[in-house]
Design goal:
With about 250 residues, the protein is α/β, with parallel strands linked by helices. Helix content is about 40%, strand content about 25%. The chain contains nine helices and ten strands. The strands form two sheets. Strands 6-7-8-3-9-10 form a six-stranded mixed β-sheet, with helices on both faces. It has a four-stranded antiparallel β-sheet with strand order 2-1-4-5, with helices on one face. A hairpin with a 2-residue loop joins strand 9 and strand 10. Helix 3 runs parallel beside helix 5. It is globular, with a radius of gyration of 18 Å. The termini are far apart.
Length: about 250
């Protein structure tokens, strides 16, 4: 991991209709090659933070920058910026009428004006990396949820992003499909991809993260390396949050 700051959020304030702040003064620097996992209760602002990071959401004040360039929803440079920030959602958002390969190559060919044969070659190489090369000519409806999510990750990678954002990408999957998606993400982390990940998969967060950011009510309550956060959280709020998952695992054992 480099000390170079790649993605920077400063004093971010976001509210809907001028009511309660969804994000209330968030400040966060993500370094090149770093894996930051964002944890927190439902409704605390995690997904909104990711959407502000790639310009899908506007915000009232503060700033988001990628390599020093401003990221704003209506900014003139947003087409170029969005190509540098890949995002994978909980819903796969694959085009049902296109084959898997066509889903992956559509944006590189149309948006980046890349050569079709080269885009297809890279799509096949990426599909092979995630164990889905044999599925390149099928349609999304013929894939399992875990397979669709791996394709969604490949589609984002095909744009050659500098940063990858993952928003609860395993939340809609059956438990046995979760692992295959998390393995792909762990592999990306090992290869040095800069990533910001929102997840409720605690074991994955502990294994993948360089740093844990814990958000509650739109504010960063705690940030620490995973070995510290999971064994000795410094705030009562974070400890209470982690107890929820401990209780669940005890119930499962029982």
């Amino acid at each position: 991991m480099s000390q170079e700051v790649q993605l920077s959020v400063k004093d971010l304030l976001k509210s809907y209709d001028g009511t309660a702040e969804v994000l209330n003064g968030i400040t966060l620097d993500v370094h090149k090659g770093e894996v930051v996992v964002v944890l927190g209760p439902s409704g605390c602002g995690k997904s909104t933070l990711l959407r502000c990071m790639n310009g899908l959401e506007s915000y009232q004040s503060g700033s988001v920058t990628l390599d020093g360039e401003p990221v704003t929803k209506d900014g003139k440079n947003m087409t170029a910026i969005r190509q540098k920030i890949g995002m994978v959602f909980q819903s796969y958002e694959l085009f049902p009428h296109l084959t898997i390969e066509e889903n992956i190559t559509l944006a590189p060919i149309r948006v980046q004006k890349r050569n079709k044969a080269e885009a297809q070659k890279e799509a096949q190489e990426l599909l092979e990396r995630v164990g889905l090369l044999e599925k390149k000519d099928v349609y999304p409806r013929q894939l399992s949820g875990g397979q669709k999510q791996r394709v969604a990750i490949v589609r984002a990678l095909a744009m050659h992003p500098e940063v990858m954002l993952f928003d609860e990408v395993t939340a809609a999957l059956d438990p046995e499909m979760v692992r295959e998606v998390l393995d792909v993400m762990l592999n990306l982390a090992e290869q040095g991809m800069t990533m910001v990940i929102v997840t409720h998969e605690m074991n994955f967060a502990r294994a993948a993260a360089d740093r844990i950011i814990f958000i509650d009510q739109g504010k960063i309550v705690e940030e620490a390396p995973p070995e510290v956060f999971f064994t000795n959280p410094s705030t009562e709020r974070a400890a209470k949050f982690l107890e929820t998952f401990t209780y669940e695992s005890k119930k499962k054992r029982g």
